Structures are given as C-alpha cells and as structure tokens.
Amino acid sequence: MVGGENMVGAGMPRVSVLIPVYNREKVIAETIASVLGQTFADFELIICDDCSADGSVGIVKSFADPRIRLIRNEINQGSSASRNRLIGEARGEFCALLDSDDIALPHRLETQVGFLDARPDVDACSGALIIIDGDGRENGRVWYKETAGHEALKVKTLFKCAVAQTALMFRRREFIEAGLAYVPGPANDLGLFKHALHKLRFANIGTPLVKYRVWQSQMSTEHDNQRERALEHLYYQYDLLGLTLTDDDRDVLRVVVTGGRIPPELADGFADLAARIAGANKQKQVFSQAALVSCMLSMYKGTMRLARKKGLGAYFRFRCKYRRFRKILAGI
Model pTM greater than 0.85? Predict the structure, then answer.
C-alpha cells in the first residue's frame, strides 16, 4: 500500500528520490519502475501529486513497495512548490531529483552516492542525459556529457543551465542550511542553480544517469516562454558583475541559453560581451577568471566550426578572429 503514513524501516534511508507528478498516466509507471530497479536499494521514493486529473494517482498506488510514499497537494501549485514540498518531506542524507516522465538508469543512485561519499568537498552532482522521444526511443543525442568541476559549472550559469536537474543529487542538510528553494514559473531549474552554484559546490560526473524524454508535441509558445524566463535568470549573474547588457548582448544570450552555438554574424557581439565580462570579473572576483576565459574561448571555437560550413575562407577568417579574441582575454 502507498500512502503518506508509510515509513521506511527503523533507520533513515540514505537517499530520498523525489518525483513531482502532474497528469503523467502514460509514463509514470515506467519512471517508478526505473527507481525500484536501482542497483542501490537504500532509498525512499516520495511522489508529490499536484492534483492530477488523469489516472496518475491510481498508477502510483498500484505499486506495493514499502519504500514509496505518496503525498498530494490540495490545490494545483506547480512543479516548483511540489519540489520544495518534496525536499521538506525527505529524510535521506541525499536527495535525488527525477522528473515524472524520465527514466533513471539502473546504476544512477549507486554512481552518485559513491561519488559523493568519495568527495566530501562536493555538495551536489549531476550527470549526462540520454535523449529519448515520447515513445522512449533514443535518437543518439546525449546532453551534459562533459565532466566538469564546480568552477567551470559556476561560469556556465552566465550563459545557460549548467547541470541537468532531473539527474541531480545533493546533500539535503547542506541544501536546506544554504536557504535554497525553487522559485515559481518556467525555467525553475536555472532559477535554483543561479543561487545554488554560489552557495554549494557542484560537479558533473559526465556519466549517463537518466533517459530524458523530449516531447515533440511541446508548443513553440511554451518554448519561447521558457527561453525568456531563462534569460531573466541569466541576468542575475550579470547584476553580480555590475554589467549593463545591451540589446546586442541579449541577442547573443538568447541563442546560447537554449544550448545553441553562436552564429558567425553574432561573433563580434559575443567577443565584445566576453571582454566586458572578463574585465568586470577581474574586479569583482565572482567567478574563477581562468575558468571564465576557458569557457568563453570554447564558445568561440563553436563559432569557428559553424563558419567552416560556409567554406575554408570563412573558417580561416574566424581563426584569425579567434586569435585576436584570445589575446584580448589574455590581456585583461
């Protein structure tokens, strides 16, 4: 039987797996099964239903595993409020987030617990996502596959979401003591990470941990709302640096916040923004200067690869521009 009154044995579980649910009757059973099939068994699974109007609750209740607890919001509050409630209900040393339409790979919990046990200096870790469609088919894409330490991830919050929320595991006590919480609205992962990466130490393992479902039916208007809200969260980092963004700066960020490479026509605008970022950070010391320069050089190399598609002439022009860009950053 599943219910809020269920307990998980006499001791506290090491991991609390937290899943917010809203109208996921088509996939929630597969998500739950992926957690119950983990190679690491010392966990509780807490599911918060946000007033689903379909059969999601009945499917959750059909699982008899005593490690499962179901809690239900009295009114629909959105995923941010549900995640905050789940964190408050958790009893584990670690909290592992998972979206209700994604699939945890069997070794996910074992890998992350082992990593955090071996790295007491790290408060939170995430990993790579294998992309699947609505029917669960893989398309060969893998996101967040680069292994990265805290300083590199912190710098990335200037441009995009640094880590995968659905594969995140963090130390519960440290998260709560840092005063962190999800904020309402779209792009709430970036809304959390823009603060969390300044208060906790993160790492990205790079190992695939979760199959992440991308729905083809997602409306473009919803995507636009996500992007604009994500941009608002990005601007927080520029406020910390004391930078005023121009319309050209915002055009550059609008491309990169969704994971895109900077097109050649925006390369000069990016180079100007990057130089101002480096100069401001040298004074403010918000980010590691070495990690910042490394990140922005890597982003410019992406522009070079795009330029190559236009021919060797364009590619060599951008190689020369890259060298000048590198010298400018080195001289700051």
Answer: yes
Q: Could you read off the pLDDT of 69-87 as tens digits, one per residue?
A: 999 999 999 999 999 999 9
Q: What is the pLDDT of residues 306-329, one digit of tens each?
A: 888 888 888 888 999 999 999 999
> Who contacts 191 (Cβ-Cβ below 8 Å, separation ≥6)?
80, 182, 183, 185, 229, 233
Q: Which tokens belong to 217?
A: 């039916």
- Nearest residue to 248 via CA among 264, 232, 269, 263: 269
**Residues with Cβ within 8 Å of residue 206, at least 6 apart in sequence:** 127, 128, 144, 145, 146, 147, 148
Q: Distances from the Cα of 314 to the Cαs of 272, 273, 308, 326, in angstroms?
A: 20, 22, 6, 18
Cβ-Cβ contacts under 8 Å for 44 (sequence gap 6 or more): 8, 13, 15, 16, 17, 67, 68, 69, 90, 91, 92
**What CA–CA distance (Å, rounded) separates 156 from 237?**
10
Contacts of 316 (CB under 8 A, 6+ apart): none
Give the Cα separation of 93 and 324 in Å (integer). Answer: 49
Query: Looking at residues 133-137, what average pLDDT do you find?
Result: 91
